[in-house]
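Prompt: For my understanding, could you write out one protein's sequence and backbone structure tokens?
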Amino acid sequence: MSQNIGQKILFNKLKILVGEKDFIHEISKVIPVSSAGIYRRINGITLLTIDEITLLSEKFNISYNELFSYSPTDEIIFKFDYVNQGFVKYLNNITQNLNHISSFEDHIMIYSVKDLPIWHYFTCKFLTNFKIFYWLRTIKKDPDFQDKKFEFDCIPDQYLVAAKKSLQAYSKVNSEELWTPSSLNVMIGQIKYYFESGIISKTQFEIITSKLLDLLDSIKNEAAKGIKGGYSKTGSYKIYLSEIIGGDNVVYVRGGNEQITFHPPVLMNYLHTKDTKFCNYIKEAFDRAKGTAELISVISEKNRNALFNGFKQNVLKLKKNHEQQ
């Protein structure tokens, strides 16, 4: 494929992504040339420079391979969302993806839950502060947090604003989540570790576990209604209980003709791909998993109550085991 033909294909892809009405205006904000210069590049008369390709890739969050339609049949192209890029940027990238998906009327996000999806914690300011502190201190090893003990007001505002925006975006997305009886174990382990290490105080421990119990009631109520709460525009919400297939925090999303799979190779960092064959494979795997699982949203009140009561018993057990400490 000659470069100018590939360039025309590139701009056709961007036109679909941006929309024809605002296309020239949006491109001109990225490539600092005249309108005539933009048209020469769109028509393949003037070739894009490497710098211009990089700017387009970063602005529209698509890889070089996607831009030029390079997709070998025996390879899968992944992009890497690396949390060390900065935690606020990391959250903003997640928010951008969620907003893009929810812009399609016929969209869905399917989440295989190992730890509760982060947005649940973001509904409570106490849990938001605890979770972000844990990520920054223990996972990201942020030097500004290494010698700190936890305080509920220790998280900078820009982190909390990014978390709130991400929650708002998540609330608009139609979600299906595959839970297991161990889906709360990660959070319980984090609380236990921080308390036993002296990073959180007894009072903070009591507040965090109390708010976690409240959160479980809130999620159960949303599942009973089959819809997310808290905002004027909310997405549908389904929880499937699987006692066979363990959660791994893999996420599949589809909106319109677009598909994307997010895969966590380690900790909070995510690989993601739009490879059609791989996304179809993950979607089929999720469909098989749902076939062996039980839908506990709207219906199956008995099993829904049993799952959440089991979670609450685990939290109460944690509290009881540390009463004398």
Notes: The radius of gyration is 22 Å.
